[in-house]
Amino acid sequence: MRKWPTLNRRITACRLCPRLREYCREVGRQKRRAFATEKYWARPVPNFGDPRARLLIVGLAPAAHGANRTGRMFTGDRSGLWLYRALHKAGFANQSESHSADDGLVLTDCAITAVCHCAPPDNKPTRQEIANCRRWLESTIDMLPVRVILALGQIAFHSAVDEARQRNWLTGRRPKFTHGAAIEMKEGRWLLASYHPSQQNTFTGRLTEPMFDGVFRLARKLLGKEGRITTNRRRRAT
Q1: Which of 80, 91, 126, 147 has the most CB atoms in a 10 Å sphere around its CB?
Q2: Which residues on neighbouring strands pair with residue 191, listed in sequence order?
């Protein structure tokens, strides 16, 4: 467990992407009017959750006025409200809301990381910035007893697939991103896919609460006593 905070300190100290570091600082200087009195984190955001987690959630990157402000993954924005509400329903979180890094939220058997740990302009990291941050995804997976990886959005899904193929957990034809997809990997591991709970998906109805909850019910089932479900190799959460 001591390795978990060490990894997070290394992530926070990362300086591989000058563009992202400067953008995070600039957002922290300008601030949003609603948060004018707050001090922004404005640094790479560390992983969050249980250092013994079997469920690893992979997001895209911190939101400029969300995690880049609060210093905790998916905290302080609407995406986080959707995520932690779903995690609470599925029994992975002790509360359904997340507003600040000291609000008492605790995750059990679940950890959250990101493809990029710095907030990117327009939520669009470059390929090189994604590549620079890949070492932290690798180290996170090395450290955790991961059985289920849940990727939120296409970029996270492709990064998770790349990592699974690198580890020889996933072979054969490269899977395509589809909401609710469940891909069985080697040694009883699974890769799940979901639309990201961003406003462009939740406000338009592309992602609904029942759809999102279904993915977490499946994750919980996969982590049950049997450790896997006996269905087709690929299926959708309902």
Answers
A1: 80
A2: 149, 183
Q: Is 235 helix (H, G, I), strand (E, B) or coil?
A: strand
State the total domains in the chain.
1
In terms of Cα–Cα distance, which of 3, 62, 4, 68 is closest to 30?
A: 68
- Per-residue pLDDT reduced to its tens digit, 156-181: 999 999 999 999 999 999 999 999 99
Note down the domain range covering 56.
Answer: 3-236
Whether 67 and 45 have beta carbons less than 8 Å apart is answered as: yes
**Selection from 50, 88, 57, 89 nearest residue 74 by Cα:** 57
Q: What CATH number is given to the structural domain containing 95? A: 3.40.470.10
When pLDDT is averaged across residues 98-125 and rounded to a whole number, the result is: 97
**Burial class of residue 225 in the structure, from the number of CB atoms within 10 Å of its CB (0-12 exposed, 13-18 middle, 19+ buried):** exposed
